[in-house]
Amino acid sequence: MQDVQFIENQIQFQKYPFQASSIYLNGSVTSEDISEILITRCPPEVRLKSDEVLFVSAVHKGSLEMFAKSNKIPIVSRMDTWSFICEEFLDTEFSDKYKEKVDRLLENEGLDRNFVNETRQFLYTPMMAYNSIMWDWAHLGLYDVLMAISGQFPYGEKVKFTDEAFHDFYWKAMKLVMRERNR
Question: What are the residue boundaries of the structural domains of the chain, listed by start?
Answer without folding.
Answer: 3-70, 81-177
